[in-house]
From TrEMBL:
Main location (coarse class): cytoplasm
Keyword Glycosyltransferase found: no
Gene3D superfamilies: 3.40.630.30
Stretches assigned to coiled coil: none
Organism of provenance: Micromonospora fiedleri
Protein EC: 2.3.1.266
Protein name per the record: [Ribosomal protein bS18]-alanine N-acetyltransferase
Length: 150
């Protein structure tokens, strides 16, 4: 297994990320414009790459002043899953939130995505609500989860 490296997500990674989005999320995938907007707004985005620079996964965190942040996305290419990359990306986002003294980190996760919910629960995220029909066009509910640092 090759080493995984975290780097700043840059505009030239968008095409590779869109391939991962299409495979994982289908009709509910983010568009290039959505990623451009995230980067243009200065949100904290990281990519995970292997030794040859291939994008294995990505994650983003949006700061909501004064003391809150939202995990925008965490995704890992199917053939790279179950290698701890999602965990590594989540830990990087949580470290960034801590560096910025953001007490609360929130996220939305598909109500039918039990593996992701278990990952988040393992880092202290707790369910606080449901957004009915949040993911479109599938009309899948989103579970809102929050982690608070004391």
């Amino acid at each position: 297994m090759s080493a995984v490296r975290l780097d700043r997500f840059r505009w030239w990674h968008i095409d590779e990320v869109l391939t991962i989005e299409a495979d994982l999320f289908g009709a509910e995938q983010w568009s290039a414009a959505m990623f451009w907007n995230e980067l243009a707004n200065g949100h904290h985005y990281r990519i995970a790459t292997d030794d040859d620079g291939t994008v294995l996964g990505y994650a983003g965190l949006a700061v909501a002043p004064p003391d809150e942040a939202w995990v925008q996305n965490i995704a890992v290419r199917r053939d790279a899953q179950r290698r701890g990359i999602g965990r590594l990306l989540l830990e990087e986002l949580l470290a960034e939130a801590a560096r910025r003294d953001l007490r609360a980190v929130l996220l939305e996760v598909a109500a039918d995505n039990a593996p992701a919910q278990r990952l988040y629960a393992g880092y202290g995220f707790e369910p606080i609500g449901v957004r009915r029909g949040y993911y479109q066009p599938s009309n899948t509910d989103a579970l809102v989860m929050r982690r608070i640092e004391d």
